[in-house]
Design a protein that fits this description.
single chain; alpha+beta; three-stranded antiparallel sheet; 3 helices; 18% helix
Length: 154
Amino acid sequence: YNEPRDALDLYTPRFVKGCGATKVGVCPICIESPSRGGKGEAVWLSMKFSAYNYHLQYAHGISSVSARPFSPPVAFRTTERQNPAKNERTSIQEGKCHKCRKWILVESIKNIDIKVKELYWWKHAAVCHQGKQMEGDDDFFLDDEIYRRIQQFL
């Protein structure tokens, strides 16, 4: 068992095995049941080569700094693109960052579907937010029996 930073830590793997280059950890999100937002399976990822870090940040949007989800954009807008190429979008959606106040692309300029729609935002957030949550952005836990039991000990 690997001790988390606190009871509500969404980043730290609870279970690890191996050491050095062979050290792997179980994703604490994927192992949860589908009813709680997981896959219901143990997904083991390399700790040494950042596979674990990339998975948590870019598959689940969990910050390695804060161990909490990245804050979402504070606003959205759609911008028309000038001279898009054949397989590119004619308009693109952007999200405004609470920290740097810039408008960030939240989708690819290519007109294709991607597996993780939030990927572009999470890549920006991982670099920009540095663990800073937007004020009032603290209701990301599923309010169920497990959460209420944990709250009794905090």
